[in-house]
Design brief:
- Helix content is 46%, strand content 15%.
- It is of the alpha/beta class and 563 residues long.
- The protein folds into two domains: 20-232 and 536-556; 238-520, Nitrilase/N-carbamoyl-D-aminoacid amidohydrolase.
- α11 links the parallel β3 (290-295) and β4.
- It is globular.
Length: 563
Amino acid sequence: MPEILKILMEKTKKNHGKAKRETRNGRTYNIIMAILTGGLLTAAWPTWGIAPLVFVGLVPLLMMEDRIAKGGGGKLFWVSFLAFLIWNVATTWWIWNATPAATAAWILNSIFMATVFWLFHITKKKVCNQPWGNLFLIPYWMAFELLTYWWAAKWPWLNLGNVFSSTVSWVQWYEYTGVAGGTLWVLLVNILIANILQYFKTKEAKPLMINIGLELAILLVPITVSKSIYKHYEDQGTDTEVVVVQQNCDPWNEQFDRQFYDQVIQNNINYSLPLVTPKTRFVVSSESAIQEGIWLHETDQVRALHQLHDYIKRVPQACFVIGGTTYEFVPKGMEDDFPARQIEGTNRYYYCHNSALLIDTTRMQHRNKSQLTPGVEAIPEWMGFLKNYSITMGIARGTLKTDPEAKVMTFGDHKVGVPICYESAFGEYVSTFCKKGADLLFVITNDGWWGDTPGYRQHFEFSKLRAIENRRCVARSANTGRSGFINQRGVVLQQTHYWVPDAIRDTLKANTKVTFYAKHGDYLSRMAVYLTFVQVITLVVVSLLGIGKTKKAELSKPKKKKR
């Protein structure tokens, strides 16, 4: 009897040791897969990345998910969080240059992404724990990307479709789908590759061949179609000469210092004037170039506006588009409006705006930024105690008052859309300018906060995607960073260098035709939201009815041998 117990104990010890080794090996495998996904997505990202790597970026994570879903060890949420944290930090580390709150942005966005992936994992495991169940990821992820445009923590910077800004000849069909079409493309290709690898392991020939055929079609057809459009498309519209200024002042030490107010405006005048010709229609300068403070009810008191009006009188065929800080009093009865600020020591309240101005010989038009930068320009209402402060950069103060919708400005026969800084990352929002008749897009921004980092280069790339989505030429003026001209195919015609004061001139086509995407916006993402509701309801029903448990129990039963 003791000998039997000894044998059983030794066998138990061996099994326990084997289980520990398998657990340890499983954890190592999961961590390696997470690092691979984070590394591949980073290596694909603009502006120095290799875009095609995005087509395999999610494959390691999907392989890891499949292993865990089939009984392998590991905490999927935390492993996927690691993958997304690597991607967030490695691609947007430059936010730290503007604010230490970048840490919160990286962690929160990684948590959101990991939650999406975890929800996909639960749905797949409960509803269909097969390779084609990977398709459940698509609606969840695309719905999440739509949320990044809508909710308080707006951060569409890492939406997957943005990756093709470095290969615009591949995505000329964005005029029909917008960036969401690129996200769908990336997810489908990754899922099919993961499916191919899984079917290859199980040696199931028929589904393997079907997935290989679908993979080749889904990967190659969009590229082929896009290349053809890219080759044959010609810019449409009337010739319009535009001058862009990059005045190049340091936002940390100069732009918001009173002693430099006049100098910034004079730099704009001095750099642009030699390039203005009788054909010039627009001179475009950067966001927040006028920091004198413009009360909208008494604009005649602003020295900078007098300087620019005098400038335009010398070149009356042109107008000046520039950014500034504007103020207006809050109407009586609206004092409780969240963006309202009290004038210290009084009972008066006012609004502060980040505005784009269009100045011609007779008037000044303006529009106020609508898509505010979280933390810098917008504080959530539940953080009301901080509404007159910034939780990021000490110079900016939130919350700003916004326009309820995009507003075009007019000059002569032209209507122009002027997205301000962060707004250029919002595809559907920018398209509303074009729906309202804008024939040119002028992006004005201040990218100097981030220093000489990938930040300003990535931001420039988004304007290329807006040009394709709307088939509009884009003139982009940055305080410093990268200014330039982009045609309707998303091709950069000219661009400036970082930290170099400059002015450039080009002739752009002013187009009034509205694209399918501009008419319908992010319809693919909205469809994904509806599918997400269907998937969640299906998950709840399956869980309540215990269907998933029944299937698992059936699988665990030993099969009867045929006689």
